[in-house]
Structure formats: C-alpha cells, structure tokens
Amino acid sequence: MTTQETTETATFNVGGKIYKVSRATLDKFPDTMLARMASKTWQENPEAAMFIERDSERFRFCLDYMRDGKVHLSPVVSKEALLADLQCFAFEDVKESDIDWSGN
C-alpha cells in the first residue's frame, strides 16, 4: 500500500467484509462515527482496517447515502434496518424520503 493511497482512503472491516472509502467521502459527514474513526485522532495506524460490528451487506447502502445523499434499497434490506445503521453511525437529519425501498 502506498503512502498516497493510505492518506486518500480509509479501510473498514464491517462484519468481516473489507470496504475502502475515500477520505473525501468521509469528509462530507465529519460528525459521523465513520469520519471520527478514520481521523488521525482515533486511527493510530492508517493502514489498518477499522472493525465495525454491523451488517456488512447493509454497509454498502450507508456508503451510497454518503456518496449520493439518497439510497435505493433492494427488497431484502429493510428501510428500518438501514435507518438504524445510519443512526448508529451518527448521521443526522436523514430523511425517510431519501431512502427508496422497493420491497413489498
């Protein structure tokens, strides 16, 4: 891993699945748990993956929210579960209308 890559991305191990997230994406939501975890204050080794004990499949929808400000869920993921994850990660002012659930 290069020094440049280390400073431009943060690595999260969410329930055993590895996600690399750009620091620019994290910087959009500086008050979230994810941004705080990836900060120099909390992260002693920027190359190490930070473990998060949450559902690894739902985490990708949290990243979608961070990138796009909206989420389009698959029928197998509930809106309530994603809202709980976003709340756990300390996202504020999430509107239910920003989460489109196509379940029946």
Automatic annotation (TrEMBL):
It holds the Pfam family BTB_2. GO terms for biological process: protein homooligomerization. SMART domains: BTB (SM00225). InterPro entries: BTB/POZ_dom, SKP1/BTB/POZ_sf, T1-type_BTB. Residues 8-75 form the BTB domain. Transmembrane segments: none annotated. This is BTB domain-containing protein. The lineage of its organism: Eukaryota, Sar, Stramenopiles, Ochrophyta, Bacillariophyta.
